[in-house]
Structure to design on (104 residues):
């Protein structure tokens, strides 16, 4: 099957939808939530620059045509912080591997 591609609401990068966070405006209630629900949705990169620009310029709110709460942005910042911690520990291991290979 072909992968489903989506576009970031902030930087307009195109990638498979698994690379993004999904923010949804639920249809009957018009509440904005993360990841689940049927209705209008927008995708956002898992990068600090995209999240910062989206929050500053209200890109999620304009795309969803609904106000986005500060709690939702706080949740996204927390997700970003936890994903950075896991990726930093992996990248440190790769750096030591590269240095040991280059000295041999």
């Amino acid at each position: 099957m072909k992968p489903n591609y989506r576009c970031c609401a902030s930087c307009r990068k195109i990638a498979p939808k698994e690379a993004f966070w999904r923010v949804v405006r639920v249809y009957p209630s018009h509440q904005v939530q993360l990841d689940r629900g049927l209705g209008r949705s927008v995708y956002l990169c898992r990068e600090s620059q995209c999240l910062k620009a989206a929050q500053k310029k209200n890109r999620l709110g304009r795309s969803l045509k609904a106000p986005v709460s500060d709690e939702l942005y706080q949740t996204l910042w927390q997700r970003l912080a936890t994903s950075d911690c896991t990726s930093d520990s992996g990248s440190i291991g790769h750096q030591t591997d590269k240095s040991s290979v280059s000295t041999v």
Remarks:
- Helices lie at 48-56, 59-64, 70-103.
- The CA atoms of residues 32 and 69 lie 8 Å apart.
